[in-house]
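To: structure desk
From: M.T.
Subject: fold request, one chain
Message: Could you run this one when you get a chance? Sequence is below, nothing fancy, just the single chain.
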Amino acid sequence: MRRQRSVVQMLRALTPISGRPAVVRHVVASSRNAAVPAAAHVVEKPGFHSANGGTVYPVRLVKPVTQYSNVDGGRIDDGRYTNFRADVTKLVPSERVYTDPVKTFAYGTDASFYRLLPQVVVKVHNENEVTQILPMARTHATPVTFRAAGTSLSGQAVTDSILLKLSHTGKNFRNYEIRNGGKEITVEPGLILGEVNRLLAKYKQQHGLDVQYKMGPDPSSIDSCMIGGVVANNSSGMCCGVKQNTYHTLKDMRIVFVDGTVLDTADADSRASFLVSHKTLVDGVVDLASRVQADKTLSALISKKHAIKCTTGYSMNALVDHPISDPIEIIKRLMIGSEGTLGFVSQATYNTVVDHPFKASAFIVFKDVREACRAAAVLRRETTVDAVELFDRASLTQCEGHEKIIGLVPTIADAPKTGAALLIECRGATDELLNSGIAAVSASLDGAKLDLLNDRETTYPFMKDEAVYKVYWDVRKGLIPLVGSSRAAGTSVLIEDVACEVDKLGDMTQDLIEMFQRFGYDDASVMGHALEGNLHLVFSQGFRNDDEVKKYATMMQELCEIVAEKYQGSLKAEHGTGRNVAPFVEMEWGSTAYGLMWELKELFDPEYVLNPGVILNRDPDTHQKFLKPKPVADPIVDMCMECGFCESNCPSKDLSLTPRQRITVYREISRLQDIESPSNEEQARLHEFLDIFTYEGDATCAADGMCQVKCPVGINTGDLIKSLRERELKKKTTATRGANALASNFGTFAGIVPPFLNVVSMAHGVLGGGVLRAVSGALNKVSGNIVPVWNEHMPTGAPRLPAANVPSVGLTSSKGLPRKVVYMPSCVTRMMGPAKGDANTGGVADAMMSILKKANYEVIYPAGLAGSCCGMLFNSRGFKATASVKGGELEEALMIASEGGKLPIVVDTSPCLAQMKEQLTNPALRFSLYEPAEFIANHLVDKLEWSKVREHVAIHVPCSSKKLGVEATFQKIAEMCADQVTPSGIACCGMAGDRGMRFPELTGASLAYLDLPKSCSDGYSTSRTCEMSLSNHSDGVPFRGLVYLVDEATSAKNVEA
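Reply: Done. Structure tokens follow.
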């Protein structure tokens, strides 16, 4: 593999080396009474131990580990991991087993601020594999940790042992079944929570049901977190409270225990069999429950603690809430929130909750945070309000930079230093019920004589307009990213998660604010789910030296004392215990309950194979070990929080690295390159990282920017990769000269391509697809992925452009504007025609011109069309200067053709339009440019007769169009042409121009998730290359340009409006 060392060396971190100390924390590997069998211990000898066995820069062991011990930092390979790997590859193909330094480093990161490097990463595909791997791990004494989305915040999804990854594996672990009119749904752990809600919405629509149901939990990570983590962490969220969390809404589950046994709690035979086969475990659970229920003081403590949000320790309420005569129910509930330490949940059945369609919200500013918290307590006691969110003054300061909310609630800026606000939401099945709820809330607030900043009714009314209340909630969801985007480079965003009884919330909030002020956390914000007494404490923290770590540790100790001891609250309300508060579980629960938790762990996992050290850990310093630094690497990505929200949108997530992983690996590369005098080991590590990153990080990045859509701080990892490509190519003058020559002679090139594609199509007919596929595949390998790999959906050459339409009679629209448009056929549609055998023999331009002619539009082609190009062809490869030149030429031609931006300009390929908009220098064109669906919707709908010509079609909105916000418009146009329209569900197909042809595994990985109904006759998009890849992976559903469907479904109006 070609080494691209120069790529990374070009991008040095901006901070001087002297400002970035190499050592963050000295950690002693031994652990006092660690959460392992008593026989385990650590043997040490003097010296420095490098990044093996769980240690990671710049965490250094004072003394290296030379003998295995089941503690963080002590899990070295003394042969056991080698043996495990040999056995597991007999079950799982080797391409799903990762041990290389880049992949293990990438998977050493989750959304928490801890890092542990796994010895082995295994992508598991189904329950059966897990049932065989767990006994294997038990045999070899190699602990395992499960990971779904990796969005957890407390360090429960990282390990320096075996990481079992059950997401990003195509359609595996993604099955579901909806029953009982949507009241019940069975899901597998690889489904995203928000995706499940969309499935429920689709079910309601398809079956014509009156009531919409949704999942109970609603964390802010709803569009990224997966069911596996939701169950394992007992996730809740902004509106679900305690009553609708997983513990209270889960009906049944399938559990894989450490010995590989599967228990299906919904199956009577499975329950009966388990009671016999695992009598010791069952008897132990019954004994624990009996002792707890007999201890009235302990039972009362457990019930009181779980009356508020509490995910510290195990779900001890399972031992109180259910009779000892039903041990299976107790076991089921104990699994919830156990963070993979008791077993693996391979399937979960939920009772869903009603999603009321009528909603209203009010944003109310108070003079004092205690008054805001008192209001929340009043509403909890006296009303059935649905949600109450708290903003402290620091949060309101962040809001002041948000133009929309300041426009709606200008008094935010007037809040005093002690001020705060509540965001209150009411819901109802009908508008009448909603009004009743609003009236009750209003009466309680007014009756409490609260010290509001302004009059409630006139200044802070309840708003039913979705456009208004959506602003309120978008700001609430964006508070954490606002802190994240304003922090200093090289620091992490920390989110602590605490709760107390709502009557105590005001005092606890004030104490925590004062604590942050004393410790100098000037950016700290206190916000959260006030109705549940739940606060999120958001602040930035560096782990670059001993002083920073000491500051964090001291603050954490005081925080725990305030919450757990002074207010008898929860140290983790909804984020899970993890490693973060494992040393403080006893402080919160007391020694009796804490001892019972250890007994539970021993019952389910006596050999500590399942995620040891998480939830329970006798090392009092585990929360301040293996802290994850974030070295400065590049301003494009320095603000990355490594939350993982981006990953589900990434086309390469199943194939190579995700955006989060690209960034974390690139940070390590930058760190290694900034070492002034690297050791031989460090230099070798750098070279190996660079070698692997060439393919995993660069070549397989589509650079489509869909990661930015889901990134809380708006990072486009594709920009980083394109920047690396550009800097690499600057050193390759031959390649740059070649790109410039191609750009200068683009008309000639564009003229050669169509006849060449026709020759290839003829060869297909003569030689057959197998020969072309084999020959092109061989050339692809030999050429270093320069020659595309042929597939049967490759296009023929595009026909000549049709003559521009000139209407016989000039018309004006109802707004008095001429029916005149500039049509810009992209170079792709000028070169690529239909696929061989396609029923449409004309090109995209023919269909577009036909539509415009029926609408009686005068069409203008821009001058110099034959040699025009938006520049994307060059920009995606790193030739940014060349792309800028071509883009500038096109912009000049469009300015002339559109009369300075007065006429609309339609571009028939969405990615090209996005490229043009991105590099515009003249603002006059910004609002003149349209992609096809947008232009048709805005200009042609009322000028054509429409009919539905298909029963069921699929649509794929290209990633560029998604970023432009035209998804709904695209669907609307398709629905005017077909009875039923199904979106592809794919964020990005991975084609990325021609990259998907040169690296076909990229589109193969992305489109492994494509699952179209069999009733779909055909599919439509607005990118010719995307249509090729979709057709190649859609099980017989051909994709074409949307304009073909519109052309077929429309006719000229007989009478002009």
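Reply (cont.): Confidence is low (pLDDT under 50) at residues 1-60. Let me know if you need anything else for the meeting.
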